[in-house]
């Protein structure tokens, strides 16, 4: 993740304890930690528990449990800024859901991991076919248990097989089912992105999360400073999208799909294409993957979006603040480059939200 401000990044805090109430959140809320379910589409379950709209924000994939999809997909949160998305007819088991030791095992099907923020203290791994892959940089990673492959769109991964370590950089894939020496080779990112269902779905989800970021980040701006309820970079609940979104501590960045994510004092820089906060219901309106509208795109500096379709402008909306969580000291720069005040705190709180999410109105021009 590349920030575009001169402010320092938030420090990495390990505690998660505070639950903060917010409008539209049920009282049986749990904290958002690695394994929290953030979106469900179609048929998905954790063990014998069927997941649905009400599972969002409340269900957790805990150590030893398996997330399974049939004709459906699911998104879970890992460390702040990291999303794990499971495709159709797939299953993954949580090995370790800790902030400094986060590991899953892909048993079947396909999974994609979007890494928007990562710290040296993070150890994020995905096991597949007896091989462990550690994610080292921000980027986009694909794991295919059916074809026994690890694919890095951008970023950097370290694949461990026994005592052998293979580095896989952006634009390269590694076949795990070959005999002899494992060696990464390049692949056509654009062609893959156009044809892979999970990639297009993940890009669409990322679009909606970027919209949720803009709406939510605006609620923490007060008189040119970070307003009440702001505790630094982390997961924040968006009542308009019924999901958690990521808000950086300072500046803004473009994620691997090219969508923009803004801190509260830099959200003014997001494109402005709409008015007012409104509820987005993913089940009632959803653009096809070829038409990705309403998102926060990379503006004058397009991000590495390989898929088809068009990218719209952000919905700049205004509303009442929802309390967020996640702490750490930070220093940021506001619109006039005034140094922001530092806040200590916790990786705090979580919220419960039912309903499918996303939606919005399409914007921008066809590419």
What this model shows, in words?
- The protein has 367 residues and is mainly beta.
- It has a domain at 37-188: Jelly Rolls (Sandwich).
- Helices cover 8% and strands 30% of the residues.
- The chain is built from two helices and 21 strands.
- The chain has helices spanning 189-195, 197-217; strands spanning 37-46, 49-50, 66-77, 82-86, 91-97, 102-108, 110-115, 124-128, 131-135, 139-144, 149-154, 156-161, 164-169, 172-175, 185-186, 221-222, 225-226, 234-238, 243-247, 252-254, 260-262.
- The strands form four sheets. It has a 15-stranded mixed beta sheet that branches.
Order of helices and strands: EEEEEEEEEEEEEEEHHEEEEEE
Helical residue percent? under 10%
- Which shape, going by the Cα principal axes? globular
Strands, total number: 21
Low-confidence stretches: 1-30, 281-367
Average of pLDDT: 74
Helix-and-strand structural type: mainly beta
Number of helices: 2
In brief, what are we looking at here?
By secondary structure, the chain is mainly beta.
Helices and strands in order:
Blueprint: E1 37-46, E2 49-50, E3 66-77, E4 82-86, E5 91-97, E6 102-108, E7 110-115, E8 124-128, E9 131-135, E10 139-144, E11 149-154, E12 156-161, E13 164-169, E14 172-175, E15 185-186, H1 189-195, H2 197-217, E16 221-222, E17 225-226, E18 234-238, E19 243-247, E20 252-254, E21 260-262
